[in-house]
Every structure is written in structure tokens, then in C-alpha cells.
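Write out this protein's structure.
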Amino acid sequence: MEGRILIVDPDVSLRNKVQDVLSDLGLTVYTAGSFDEAHSFLSFYKIEFMIMDLILPDKNGIDLLIYTKQLNPSIKVYVYTDVKGATIERSVLKKGADAFINKSGDFRKDFEKIFFTAPQEQSSQVLEMQGFKGTVAGVDIIDMVQALALMGKTVILSCRDMKTFKEGVIVFKSGEIIDAKAGSKKGEEALFEILSWKDGVFETKTYTEEPNRTINAPVDLLLLNFARIKDEAEDAEAKAVELTLPDIVKFFHAEIPGFIGSMIFDYEEGAPIAFETILAGKTFQASAALYGGILKAAQEAMEIVTEGKEKRDELSEIIITDRNDHVMLFPLPVNNFAIFLLVSRDTAVQEVRSVVLKYIPDVIKILKEEKIS
């Protein structure tokens, strides 16, 4: 294999390893750690291949990709990055990259994908949009935004989400996104909400009055940020599904100031199913004493909640305060289960409540999935 190849990555160690491997293949290898360094090599040498990261210290990697393809359309550009997400990959391929490979930690295997697999397909179709109406269902709104940006349009893209009936607009000026509105939201927050809509109607309109600018970032950076936020939300959702009850009482410990102890328990049986105290890992006698005090207080609190009443289906709470502590009890609408906390009296009750309410949906879901009810 012959030719010149440029490796663009801020990681010096990775660049050196890659240089050794590719030199053995017969390639002439140059390395750069930034956009400016890559620019110098591309200006002075005829480079046939470039392997580049998206995260560079001085500019967005998308800028380097666009510049490189404009300078030399025949160069093969392989994006090799830790950045993940189908939206980012699609954007990169549409900008002219020949492949998008996520770093696996084994760059030798990764390079097999780069050099010895068929090029990834790209969509070369550009929508002709002078003014149109349509439905978002079956159409990627991000592709639409990219097309309007690519064509340098000055237009308003008006959208309505058919699930919530929310309405929003994205304002373009010469291909830049300069403003977005969705309900009470404005700017990037509104833009990201509109980009998340999957089922709706849209149309483009011209505008005569100059709109206020609320967005200053380039379109590519906006889409990268949206993809990152979307991926993080999906990761958080996946992690939430994997939570256990012991995890949740540990979160109570970590997030509630003045935390002393908590448990999730069956109040009819008087048996905790998850338990956490500030004395975890201390002496058995101290932990046992605290455990006994918590259990006794929990039983007393539940007697007040259930005395002379049928089991409640609606979420309620009870607070018992003495001179030192708050005892807080949250009965759950899942058979006989409840969340109990013991916190210092200095702790604001509202802080405890806000943390517990955040995790109650997870607790109920776990209880139902485990068929404890």
C-alpha cells in the first residue's frame, strides 16, 4: 500500500502508535494534533488519505472535514472518534467522510475496518425546497435542517408535533440557524425540542422582517450538541432501567443532606427489602442499634398511617419530628410497601421530599417488575 496519509488526533500516544503501524504498511505518515497543524500539511503535501478525530483543541472536526474535501475532493477521509450517535454519523457521512468508525481501544482492528471494508453509503440527494408542506413522519427532520443549511436558505421552517400539538419554528438566514421558538422556549433549547419531534407536520415560509438572533453556533455544532444530549438521555434511560432498590437507597444517602438512614420495606411484615445507614461498615453493635431505632420508628409511623383505614392507593406521606430528627414515611401504591427515611432535624423537609419523589417512579417500577406486589 502506497501514498501519503495524515493522522489528525490530539492524543500524541495514539498518533505515535498509528504512525508505526501504517508506516509498516508502506504509507508515508504525517501526524497533526489540531486543525491548524492539519491545515499546514494539507496545504504543502498531496495527501491521499486522512484519519481524523471530531474533537480537536482549536476547531470543530466537521470544519476540518469540509475544508479538506473542498481542497481535495478525491482525498479519502476516515472519521475515527470516541463520539457516538447515529445522528452524528449521518451528518459526518453527508459532509463527505468515506467512513465513520468509533474507537474500540484496539486500533489495529479498527484500521481493518477503515482500509479493508467497503465504503459506507452516503446520501447525495439534496431536496429542492423553495416552499413546501409535508409530514415529519418518515422524514428525518435533521436531514431537512441540514438540507436547508446546505442550500443556504433564508426561510422559516414551521413545525407542529402531532402528539402534543406543540408548535415551533426554526429560522434560517443564508443557511445559518439564527432563531428557534417552541412554546415558551427560545434559542437552542427550542431548537433541540423541535429536532426531537418524530410525528408532525411542517412547512417553509419566507419572512420579510429581520428576526432577533438567539442562536450563534454553526449548524454542524448545533446538531452535534443535539446528538450528544439525545445519546446522554438514552443512556440515562437505559441506566434507570437497570437500577436496583439498594442502588436507590444509596442515592438517598448521597443526595439528602443530614441523611441518617433509610429503608424500603413491607410494613405489614415489618421486613425491610433494602436498607442504608450512615453507619454502614461500622461496628455491628452500632449498626444494629441504629437499625432497631429506624425499624421501631417506621412501625410507629405506619401505625399512624394505617390505623383504622384501608390501605391507601394514593401516594401520601407522614412526618414525625422530635428534638433531634425527622422521621419521613412515603407509602407506595404497590401493596404494602413504603419508603422510610430518618434525617437530622436541620435537614429541610422539602429537600428530602424532592429527592424521594424523583426516585419513586423507579421504586414502583422495580417492585412491579420483580412481582413483589
